[in-house]
Structures are given as C-alpha cells and as structure tokens.
Specification:
Blueprint (H helix, E strand, L loop, with lengths): L1 H4 L2 H76 L2 H9 L3 H14 L5 E6 L3 E7 L2 E3 L3 E2 L5 H15 L1 E4 L2 E4 L12 E7 L2 E9 L17 E7 H13 L2 E6 L9 E5 L5 E8 L3 H21 L4 H25 L9 H13 L6 E9 L1 H8 L1 H19 L3 E7 L2 E6 L5 H15 L3 E2 L5 E2 L2 E9 L6 H18 L4 E3 L9 H7 L5
Parallel strand pairs: 18-19
Antiparallel strand pairs: 1-2, 1-9, 2-3, 2-4, 5-6, 7-8, 8-9, 10-12, 11-12, 13-15, 13-18, 14-15, 16-17
Length: about 500
Amino acid sequence: MQEAMNPPSERRAQSRYVPGRISTLVVLLALALISIASVSLVYVGRIAAGVADAQAQGNEDRLFANALHDKKVMMAREQLALARWTKSYRNISQRFSQGYIRKELVDWIWNDYRHDRTSLVGEGGKLLMTAREDKADFAARTLATDDPVAMIVTRAVARFMSNREPMPGGFRQKRISVAQVDAITDFAFATIDGEPALVSAMAVVPDDDEAIAMPDGAPVILVSAKFLRGEFSAELNAQLAFKDFTFDANTGTASAGQSVLEGIDGRLIGAFRWTRAQPGAEIWSVVIPVIGVLAAVLALSAGLIARGIARISTRLEASEARNRQLALHDALTGLANRLHFNQSLDAAVGRLPHLPFAVLACDLDRFKAVNDTYGHAAGDTVIRIVAERLATVVGGAGLVGRPGGDEFLILVTGFTDQPRLRVLTHQIIASVSMPITLDDGAITDVGASIGVAVAPDHGASAAAILASADAALYGAKERGRGIAVFAQHLTQYTTPEQAGGVASNVA
C-alpha cells in the first residue's frame, strides 16, 4: 500500500535504485571472487608445477615398465603355441625332424611372430639348431658357459625342473593357464649377433591334455630373441605414445627420460630414451585462461533463464539419447547390438575400396564352464567385464558389438595393416584373459579366440567379410583357442581340418 501511495517519479527512482544496487553488489562480488581465485591459482600453480613434473615422470616410468612386461608375456605366449605342443615334442625332443623344424617351427615363429633369432638347445648346452629369421642352421656345437644363450638356457632348465611333476613312466610339466605363462618362461636382455635383444626361453613339452611321460633330465629349450631396435620399439611405443621414443645402444650419456637395460651377463646393452612430458611448464599457460574463464562465468551469471531453457533442452535430448541407446545398444553390456553393428558395417562397406576396414570375430573360451559352475548371473558379470575390457582396448580405433551370447564383433576402421592388427589382437587376448572377480568374491577367468578379416581383401560385402572372419575364428578354435588367426592364411585350404592344422596365429 505504501508503494502505491508514493508518487510515480519516486517509484521509478526506487525501481532504478534497487536493481542498480544489486548489480553493483554482483559486480563487486565477482571482482572479489576473481581476485581471490587469481591469487589462489598463482599460488597453487607454483606448487603444482613441481609436483606435476614429478608425477608425470613416475607415471611414465610405470607405463613403460607395464608395457615392457606386456611385451615379454606376449612373446612367451607366442612361444607357448609351439613349445607346449605334442607335435613339437615328438619332432624335436623324441626324433629331431629337421624338416618339421625348418618348415613349421622356424617358418612360423618368424613369419607370424617376427622372432629375429631362434635356437634349440639340448642337454649340456648343446646347440641343436639356430635360425636367423627364417633360415635354419643345424650345425651342432656346444655353447660356451658365458654365452648369453647358454646362460638363459641354464635358467630355463631350472625353471622347468621347479615346474614339473611326476607321472607314470616319468615326468610332465605342471598345468598352467595362459595367464601364468611367465611362470614357465625365463626372460633376459642380451646382445645376440651384435644386436641388443629381448630373449625368452622355455622347455619343449607335450600338450597339457596328453598323457606323455618325459624322461628325467634336462628338456630341449626353445630360445627366441627379438631385436630391440626397429619394429619392437615401434610396437612398444604404440602402447606408450612417448615423444621421441627410441632405443639407443649407447649407454654412455645419461638423459632425463631413459630406462637403461642390463644384459644377462651383467653388461649394459643400451637404453630406451624419450622426451619427458613437462606438465609443470604448462601450468602457467592454464592459469591465465582459467582466470579469464572464471571472469566470463561470473559476468554471464545473469543468464539464469537461458540456463533454465538449456536444462529443459538437455533433458529432452537426454530422453532422445536414452531411446536411441535402447534401440542400438545391447542391454547387458551397453555395446552396439546386432542392428547397430550391421548398420555401421554396411556404412563401412559403402566406403570401399577407398577406406578399407577390418572385422574381428571374437568368441570367449571356457565361458560355458563359468555358467555351469557359478550360474548365469555370474556369466552375465563375465560378459559385462569382458565388454568393458574390449571397449577399453579398442578405444577410438573402431566399434565393439555384441550380437548375443559370448560372441563379440569388432569393426576396426582406424587401421588395417597386419602389424597394428596383430598388436590389437595381442592386447585383446591379454586383457580378456586377466582374472575376473565375481559378485560373490569368486575368481574365474576366460579366454578369447579371434578371427581377423580385412575388407576388401577378404570380402567386399557385409556377408562376405563376416563369413571370412567367422572362418578365421573357426581356424583359431581348431588350433587350440586363445589365439588369433588372420583370414588370408585360411584361403588356400578347403576344409576346416586343413585350415586348423597350419593356420597362422598371432596370440
């Protein structure tokens, strides 16, 4: 009533005064907040710069150590496909078939896995065979005790002896899972033929499910070496993405970013070097923009109505996104469902031949045993965890889909060259094979078999490329599971039995 009684000019003055006062208070508050934030950011920046650099260095060192460990384990798994095989044991340890060694073992371990040097060493350090790439030399000789190959063979024999168990008529190697392969493998760094290398050694033994007794004494040891320079360093940095990453055989000059390697004989053989990230130097370039952003946010705080409208729009968009999610994604895992994957595959086919792509067909190994042992709820947990691991490994390189059951399909559009596809399959198999903790605390594990097909080489239509990937997957299962098979190694065979016998695997 009092306001109605005031003259119109007074009421207009009051209406101008109150908003003006509030605006002034808002401006003063914004200036105070900006000043406090600026001083705080400058103070925090000085402290954070040093801490950020130290943390970045620690993170890089941990990443490097983990990536190098992964390369060791993958190298051992590649060896395992040949060393833990009854066919190899009969043709190496029992009768020593040069034809088998040359045509299958040496050819396979070079052409599929790119192991630069391969050796077979018998009891007493007797060198039975050595291969440079795919060229085998059967000139027998006894290795000197200080030879790097002899030294790692001695350790591999001791490791075999500690992992064997008696059986009727002799001994056998203890059963282990693929995830435990480093328990039966010895690793070392050494200079081989003048070149720094990662060396891996394990005993040649029959398959786990074969009742073949091995005699007492040292087994034949399979030794492989990968040179650290070149392809090995490139594949290692594919996981790290370090700047200026290289292997340097000169260890005389130390640098901030390096990991010096000592050979099995105690000598330094070189160092991995890279340019360290320095996030501390970027702190100041972040502080000033943040101050500007804070000022802009405070200046635009009056736009509450627009924010309200934006929230309504966001809710509508979120509702539409949920509907699209339900229509195109698997309810259990959130991965692309069959419809979504087929649409993406058809789109990729439409871009051929200018933009090739690859399809990976992936089935889980031992999944039925999980369902039978722990129930379907546990099986659902395994599927969800495997889906998360696949999505993490594939990342932005492609699309992961689950058509149903324990089947997964991966559409890779980021690259189609075999080295990077091989690295991707290695990472998938390693990730899926890691132990899984169920809701009740029980721990289980599954494996993965993968078939790889590249378009348009193995099909220019969706149906054709899927058929090629499925055929390669069948070859992986026939070969023993837990491996990846490329389709091109199957095209020359007419029956699954023929393909399964010699198909190339990359796991």
